[in-house]
Amino acid sequence: MLLSEILDYIKQKGISYSANKLVDTEITRISVPSESDSNAILFFSRGLPHDFNFSYGACLIRNTEISDKVNLVNVIQVEDPRFVIILIANLFKPYFSQKEPSISTKAIIHPEAKIGENVIIMDNAVLGKCIIGDYTIIYPNVVIYDGVEIGSFCEINANTTLGAEGMGENRYDGDKIIKFSHFSKLVIKGNVLIGPNVTISKGVLVPTIIESGCMINALVHIAHNVHIGEKVGISMGVIICGSAKIGKGCWLAPNSTIRNQVTIADNITVGMGAVVSKSFHEPGVTLVGMPAHVLREGIK
Fold first, then answer.
1. Of 55, 62, 75, 228, whose CB count within 10 A is highest?
2. Looking at the domain assignment, is residue 118 inside a domain?
3. Domain check: are 114 and 43 in the same one?
């Protein structure tokens, strides 16, 4: 891919850039400085090293960088080099720019499933009567039950299960169990990234909802009727119990647990291993401990 094509792409994404000297070079990969060559593009997000001597490929630096290095060939100034390199990285995915869907013959798909444009469904995925938005990627061995709605530009990684029923039940006659059937659905809005081995249950009588822009890492469990706000980050091993509500912009650190029926406000950070057993309505605080409490200045 030519450097000019890459620059056209980031311009289409609304990214402004400047460069004093450009040579249209073939770029085949993203690299770190120590591994760079004439076909690589690299970036510096926190300033240039003193011994920086760039002479090949292409390089992104901050537009606030005051340096004679900006006069080197193919040194490109942008506001946020890390963000721009992430955008560029998508160009090197083999399926990113495809113009038609790619559905494995080894996938099992319900005849009434609604599949959007340019969707990728890989080997051994099982899709029930669900809705999949445009440009969404379903990796191998994903199971999607009936009543799941997934928006556009999502990624669902391998071995994840979406829309299974939870374990709400009642006991009677001593040792017998009757399960509360789930009649609602699971709704995952657009631009949601879901890691491998995640389980998200459908709602019982109201939907489980994941709003747009969320990132859900590996080995997360989200129970029935949960509502997760926009742009929430959920790290590895998090458990969110039934009917919990997570405000927008929150960050849940690894192995934290949110108890059922709990509400946490917008932009709250939940620390590693914390157990949130009650609601917190003050936005922007950090919760730590078991049971979780607000981390205040001076507490170590």
1. 228
2. yes
3. no
**Residue closest to 113 by CA, chosen among 147, 158, 160, 159:** 147
* 284 lies in the same domain as 140: yes
Residue ranges making up the domain that contains 254: 102-294
* Choice between 69 and 78, residue whose per-residue pLDDT is larger: 78
276 is a domain residue: yes
Helix, strand, or coil (residue 245):
strand
Which of 110, 182, 221, 224 is an active site residue?
A: 224
- CB neighbours (10 Å) of residue 79? 12
Query: So what's the pLDDT on residue 168?
Result: 76
Mean pLDDT of 35-41: 85
Q: Are residue 37 and residue 182 in the same domain, yes or no?
A: no
Angstrom distance (rounded) from CA 194 to CA 218: 7
Kindly state whether residues 130 and 232 are assigned to the same domain.
Answer: yes
Q: pLDDT-derived band of residue 53, with 50, 70 and 90 as boundaries?
A: low
* Of the listed ranges 24-38, 137-151, 281-295, the one predicted with least confidence: 24-38
Are 113 and 127 in contact by the 8 Å Cβ rule? The answer is yes
Domain count, the chain: 2
182 given a catalytic annotation: no
Asked if residue 300 is part of any domain, the answer here is no
Q: Is 197 exposed, middle or buried (0-12, 13-18, 19+ CB in 10 A)?
A: middle
- pTM of the predicted model, to two decimals? 0.82
